[in-house]
UniProtKB/TrEMBL annotation:
The keyword NAD applies. Keywords: FAD, Flavoprotein, NAD, Oxidoreductase. SUPFAM superfamilies: FAD/NAD(P)-binding domain (SSF51905). Pfam families: Pyr_redox_2. InterPro entries: FAD/NAD-bd_sf, FAD/NAD-binding_dom, NDH-2. This is FAD/NAD(P)-binding domain-containing protein. Residues 11-327 form the FAD/NAD(P)-binding domain. Belongs to the NADH dehydrogenase family. One of its GO terms (molecular function) is NADH dehydrogenase activity. It comes from the Bacteria. The keyword Ion transport does not apply.
Length: 462
């Protein structure tokens, strides 16, 4: 195991290249520009992927409104003053200020992991999908948290239309045209709405499929969807989806999905070839291996200044952190805990700014400040030209909410380069027809060559 260290450099290790990790490193580049240039400070960003995924754009990428490459932000391009390491942190010994990282090179050469010494630690690994022990889920479920999953789901849905169009078996056709989404949060509702919109448009090019032939089912265990936009807008979203012949099932759970049959808690059974699981997330497993203080949900206990509670030189924010919400009503009694900031993108982006400011102040010996931000509200897309929003007390629906959704996220996506490209794609999409091509073969690009090579060997042998 190799060790990377340096004695005269203040080394800041950022674990995770998502919202918090990338935005924190981006601001540290500006705040510590002189120190980074002089070599007295080094910022290391570690993530398994060389890019940050702007997850609010995943539904539009799945629907073909945005190119997949414009949903991601390359870390090396936006963080030229930082050292980007593509790998996974597998262990952290904060007492000795060392992290163990498994890199791609280590996997290829078998040299083992590397150890990186650090002075300040920023833990921002984000979250991972929370899969429940539902029979058959691991075999047939499709996630919706990465750009690869979004594009894979798009190709899959279009592929099911091709299957339904070409089969004479009514059972196969019915299963191919049944799409079940589990989870009524942002990811599930927006993904279903955008893909249903795309599929409804696509079937006009199939001579033997009508929009009413498709079954789109949303399964939610609670009595409401999109809780972030409020009860009234949540009820409107249900009405809007049902008006599009989408079957919204509230207070219903997925009991089983074995043999491609979705069995629901209300007794319904749906043969389906498409089951999308978006029923929540959980903290990244690395947090449990750090020996740092966690709350009951596995998130790091943090102070309002975004420091890990009771631990020096350790910081966190976003999904990984349980940060007290200073703008919420104070607890009723001394034994009652203070409300926490919601683990969403809005808080993550703002927390990363305060985290970077405090970290720069700690490096330079200045004062640190607490994070306090009142929740501004939420916006959600329900497909092209449809949406709901509850922002600063104002409730919007339909086209105004959809337009606000696009404007808000365009303003939040990092870098002017990405903003310009996304805006250009939206403009072109308004002038031309949708692209409805499935490129499922991209998921196995060597299949054609392997087939050709195998045929060639067979011919030679014969």
């Amino acid at each position: 195991m190799k060790t990377e260290s340096s004695e005269d450099v203040t080394r800041i290790l950022v674990v995770g290249g998502g919202y918090v990790g990338m935005y924190t490193a981006l601001r540290l580049q500006r705040k510590l520009k002189q120190e980074l240039r002089q070599g007295t400070v080094e910022v290391i960003v570690v993530d398994p992927e060389p890019y940050m995924t702007y997850q609010p754009f995943l539904p539009e990428a799945a629907a073909g409104s945005i190119s997949p490459r414009h949903v991601v932000v390359p870390l090396r391009r936006v963080l030229p003053q930082c050292k980007v390491v593509i790998g996974e942190v597998t262990a952290i010994d904060h007492e000795d200020r060392r992290a163990t990282i498994t890199t791609l090179a280590a996997e290829e050469t078998g040299d083992g992991a590397i150890e990186v010494a650090y002075d300040e630690l920023v833990l921002a690994p984000g979250s991972v999908s929370r899969a429940l022990p539902v029979p058959g889920l691991a075999d047939v479920g499709i996630g919706f948290k990465t750009v690869e999953e979004a594009i894979g789901l798009r190709n899959h849905v279009l592929g099911q239309l091709d299957i339904a169009s070409s089969t004479r078996d009514p059972a196969v056709r019915d299963a191919a045209l049944t799409f079940v989404f589990v989870g009524g949060g942002y990811a599930g509702v927006e993904a279903l709405a955008e893909l249903e919109d795309m599929a409804r448009y696509a079937v006009r090019y199939y001579h033997n499929i009508q929009p009413e032939d498709m079954k789109w089912i949303l399964v939610e265990a609670t009595n409401r969807i999109l809780p972030e936009v409020g009860p009234e807008m949540g009820r409107y979203a249900v009405r809007e989806l049902r008006a599009r012949n989408i079957d919204v099932r509230l207070e219903t759970r997925l009991d089983s999905c074995e043999k491609h049959v979705a069995q629901l808690s209300d007794g319904s059974r749906f043969p389906t070839r498409t089951l999308v699981w978006t029923a929540g997330v959980k903290p990244h497993p690395i947090l449990a291996a750090t020996k740092l203080p966690l709350n009951g949900h596995g998130r790091l206990l943090c102070t309002p200044a975004l420091q890990v509670d009771g631990v020096e030189h350790a910081w966190s924010a976003g999904d990984a952190a349980a940060v007290p919400d200073l703008t919420a009503e104070p607890p009723a009694g001394p034994d009652q805990p203070r409300a926490l900031c919601a683990p969403n993108a809005q808080h993550a982006v703002r927390q990363s700014k305060v985290l970077a400011e405090n970290l720069a102040a700690a490096v330079r010996g200045g004062p640190i400040v607490d994070y306090a931000h009142s929740y501004a509200g939420s916006v959600a897309s329900l497909g092209l030209h449809k949406g709901v929003a509850h922002v600063y007390g104002r409730k919007l629906k339909g086209y105004p909410a959809w337009f606000m959704h696009r404007v808000y996220h365009l303003s939040r996506v990092p870098t002017f380069n990405r903003k310009a490209r996304v805006l250009a794609e939206w403009t072109l999409a308004g002038l031309f027809k949708r692209e409805i091509v499935s490129l499922g073969s991209l998921e196995n690009p060597r299949a054609e060559f392997e087939l050709a090579a195998g045929t060639g060997r067979h011919n030679e042998a014969s």
